[in-house]
Amino acid sequence: MPVEHGGDIGRAAARYGIPREQWLDLSTGINPRGWPVKGLPPECWRRLPEAGDGLEKAARACYAASHLLPAAGTQAVIQALPGLRPPGRVAVIHPGYAEHGRAWARLGHHVEPVAAERLAAAVAGADVVVLAHPNNPTGTRFPPELLLDWHRRLAARGGWLVVDEAFMDPTPEQSLCPHASAPGLVVLRSVGKFFGLAGARVGFACAHPALLARLEEALGPWPVSTPARRVAAAALAHRRWQAAARRWLHAGAARLHALLSRHGLAPAGGCALFQWVPTPRAGEIHEALARRGILTRLFTRPPGLRLGLPGSEYDWRRLETALRQPDLRPLLETAS
């Protein structure tokens, strides 16, 4: 069975009978004001991807990473990494992005879901520790120094620390990319969330060159299309836009936190791109909002909602108006 993800507007439109264009999608955590893609030259569609087109250079500079490898989104890397090690013990943060544990289990590794507060203890007995930072969906963060200590302990016995930094771009000072050339540390980055370029399917693995060589062999030639490489390189080099986007996202996150709190859905975590609301009424609230064409990301273990940022003032008003409706009030009053 495939893992359910956010963003499936087609499925939601069919289920609730609301046309696609009328949905407010808060389910993905993707920046609703993403990097503005302009016209691409026609030769992008005729030429095979070339490694010397500036993408790797722009990514290394943006992420402060010495060595990295582009891929068709970080999902491709997530699925390939487990095949580069013999089966072993893998501790995966829970709740978290479900594709991590699924990929390791598929190739015969023993996967143990571990709560964030128990990860430090799990390091002692694991061959690989996998986490998202900040975590998805809870927004949990760890001091970079602690993560680097975990890496040193794992690497000393041939283990890996895999850190998925899909939501790290708003806080680049906390990234482990500058350290990822050391053996045993793998850091994943993507242009999907912060840059709003999820459809381009461009991600990166930052790691030791020897591991990247094996990963490149596993992924095969031309994993990223020429148009996607061109767009991603330009976005990664656009530092002025990145600085403005960080300011807007941090302000939006504070605004969303305040809005949800006013209506009885005080977030327990989150980051600049989403807020996390654990609540036993998650399913009912998700359903009530969906009936109004507002899609949130529903989690069941533990029950909770992840909400991304509205992109316009109209979207903000639409969300607040929905939360004020009489049929939601009893759910919100008992949400905590």
Give a short overview:
The protein is an alpha/beta fold. It has twelve helices and 13 strands. The chain has two domains: 9-35 and 240-333, Aspartate Aminotransferase, domain 1 (Alpha-Beta Complex), CATH 3.90.1150; 42-237, Type I PLP-dependent aspartate aminotransferase-like (Major domain) (Aspartate Aminotransferase, domain 2, 3-Layer(aba) Sandwich), CATH 3.40.640.10.
Task: Report on the architecture of this protein.
The strands form 3 sheets. Strands 2-8-7-6-5-3-4 form a 7-stranded mixed sheet, sandwiched between helices. The protein has 12 helices and 13 strands. It is of the alpha/beta class. It folds into 2 domains: 9-35 and 240-333, Aspartate Aminotransferase, domain 1; 42-237, Type I PLP-dependent aspartate aminotransferase-like (Major domain) (Aspartate Aminotransferase, domain 2).
Overall mean pLDDT stands at 95
Sketch the major β-sheet: 7 strands, mixed
Query: What overall geometry do the principal axes of the alpha carbons give?
Result: globular
Count of the separate structural domains: 2
Strand order within the widest beta sheet: 2-8-7-6-5-3-4
Structural class: alpha/beta
Q: What is the CATH superfamily of the largest domain?
A: Type I PLP-dependent aspartate aminotransferase-like (Major domain)
CATH architectural group of the largest domain:
3-Layer(aba) Sandwich
What percentage of amino acids are in beta strands? 15-25%
Low-confidence runs (pLDDT<50, min 5 residues)? none
Report the total helices.
12
Radius of gyration computed on alpha carbons: 20 Å
Residues in helix, %: 25-40%
**The level-1 CATH class of the largest domain:** Alpha Beta
